[in-house]
Amino acid sequence: MDVFGEHLFIHVEFHNQLGIIPFKSILNLVEIQKGQSVSELHLAKQYLKKFGYLNQVNDDEFDDLLESAIRTYQQNFRLEVTGRLDKRTVNQMMKPRCGVPDIFNSTNRYNSSKTSDGVAKADYSFFPGAPKWSKKHLKYTFGATVQVAGAESIRSVCKQSFQKWAQVTEFTFEEVPNAADADIKIAFYQLDHGDDEPFDGPGGIFAHGFRPTIGMLHFDADETWSSSPGTLELDLESVAVHEIGHLLGLGHSGDHPDAIMYPYFDYGMKKRNLQEDDIEGIRDLYGL
User: Fold this and answer.
1) Which residues fall in the annotated binding site for Zn(2+)?
2) pLDDT above 90 as % of the chain
């Protein structure tokens, strides 16, 4: 084994011990099909299980359950439905994304309103049971956090991001200095940080926000963040607006790539403004 291979093996083993899925390892599985048994296929299964497409991971066999999970994933993200780990599907899985599942044991409530030609015009979702806040004034604070280059503007960025949601709802938001007074706590963390949702280093999962009324928003400190992102940086405001959507009760929008609540982002990309799907979803959840 060469030095690079040995380093990758150690990296994967260390992450597996933490329950972390190394996204890059899925690259080795391109064009694997049903009936094959391939070492590391369980990594693709772990990925699909984490995001709600598969219920269990028990081997490296490409079985009927995996094929069905891949088909559902492909349908959700407008990919050709092949049931295989084809290049387009693997490339989609490799993109940086939010750590919140897309499907919660099939109990998401998806809006199914369609236009006259049968095309879906909204695809927002809620968390199971559609939890929401009973109060309209939410206080937030910033917790003890890892020092992160490029995140110096986190306070002003979050203020702007909360305001995007305030403009289309009845919510108001206020930063407070003490955690005891806050409904929402925001911080940067690395790897396993005690919430059973470990980060995975650079690439992969970049942040997660918890459903109402848990009130936690965590950014991955190992990512390269910026308020004016370059090619290899993540836009802090785009991700903040997305994760605040989760804090307020929205799940992911799978069929609308322009929506804030679409789970994937690209490095260097800015997507800061709420779209019709996002606005319809939050207004539906709160009866506005």
Assistant:
1) 98, 193, 195, 208, 218, 242, 246, 252, 261
2) 70
pTM over 0.85: yes
CATH number of 110-285: 3.40.390.10
- At a CB cut-off of 8 Å and minimum separation 6, what does 69 contact? 45, 48, 53, 54
- Name the burial class of residue 114, with classes exposed (0-12), middle (13-18) and buried (19+) by CB atoms within 10 angstroms of its CB: exposed
Choosing from 197, 237, 243, 280, which is the catalytic residue? 243
Q: What's domain 3-94's superfamily in CATH?
A: PGBD-like superfamily/PGBD (1.10.101.10)
Which helix (H) or strand (E) element contains residue 209?
strand 205-209
Task: Provide the annotated binding site for Ca(2+).
Answer: 183, 200-201, 220, 223
Q: Which of 235, 234, 193 has the alpha carbon at shortest distance from 217? A: 193
Q: What is the pLDDT of residue 55?
A: 92
Q: Where are the domains of the chain?
A: 3-94, 110-285
What does each C-alpha distance from 218 to 122, 141, 144, 201 come to in angstroms? 27, 12, 11, 13
The reply to whether 243 belongs to the active site is: yes
HSE-CB of 220 using CA atoms within 13 angstroms: 25
